[in-house]
Amino acid sequence: MNLSAPARLILALGVLAAMTPHQASAQGAAVALASHRAVYDLKLASTRGKRAMSAVRGRILYDFSGSACEGYALQFRQVSELDSGEGKSLLSDLRATSWEDGAAKRLRFHSRNYFDESLRDSVDGQAERKPGGVEVELTEPGAKKLDLTADLVFPAEHVRRIIEAARQGKKLLQLSVYDGSDTGEKLYDTLTVIGGAIAPDQHKPTDAVAGQAAFNGMARWPVSISYFDHAVAQKSGEQTPVYVITFELYENGVSRALVLDYGDFVLSGEMTSLEMKDAKSCP
């Protein structure tokens, strides 16, 4: 069973939840990003298919910081214990860092993925937007250069676009996303579905968001993002998503009520800790 994809998805989710605009909620206000530290506890919600899981538990810890001037850095770790129900369990430990400049022109990424404390894979590289496309240079798992489509977005830019679309009342958003995941060669086509805004007095949170004054009266939307393998779609026209993330997205970029659907099993993620850190102002 390939467990790399679920681990990479958690990394993308960590980036997603960390992207936070300023508190001003005017629809026309520019989306900014704020420093953010959060913890999610994961557990098995349901299982199905040939690769059904008996139990899953885990935790995500990440620390996001930066500004539009100096770029955005993420330090991330996710540890999960997976039990197939066949008397076998696996401990997965993903450690990753990334940096994206404020103009979404450059992305640096580095990750190590351990299974039962043994290094399973390592990825290191950078991507830069050029006039004719996006150039990717990998140093791990092996030296390689890639030329990707110019209209893709990096993770922070992806989140900014989702927030902008939600503010404008849009329901659908289609973008290709590159985040350096898997072996650093994967490009995803994404379809984001944005539901109507949730009233402040509906579905009041009981997780780490509860009791934080910054979220009182803040707009939020139900969001679902389906990730499709770009290469597979180009080759065979296959439109089955590799995975789907569903969550509630606050106007300040924080996500809660997570559901991670990998096809054969579904995980729920509860935010158990949330710290909004002071952001550095641009000169």
Can you put this structure into words, describing what you see?
It is a single chain. With 283 residues, the chain is mostly beta strands. It has one domain (4-93, 150-276). The protein is 12% helix and 48% strand. A 14-stranded antiparallel β-sheet has the order 8-7-6-5-4-3-2-1-14-13-12-11-10-9. A hairpin with a 3-residue loop joins strand 2 (55-67) and strand 3. The radius of gyration is 18 Å and the shape is globular. The relative contact order is 0.20. Residues 1-26 have low confidence and may be disordered.
Helix-strand layout with pairing:
Blueprint lengths: L3 H15 L17 E12 L7 E13 L3 E13 L5 E12 L5 E10 L2 E13 L2 E8 L3 E5 L6 H13 L4 E6 L10 E7 L25 E10 H7 L6 E8 L4 E7 L3 E12 L7
Antiparallel strand pairs: 1-2, 1-14, 2-3, 3-4, 4-5, 5-6, 6-7, 7-8, 9-10, 10-11, 11-12, 12-13, 13-14
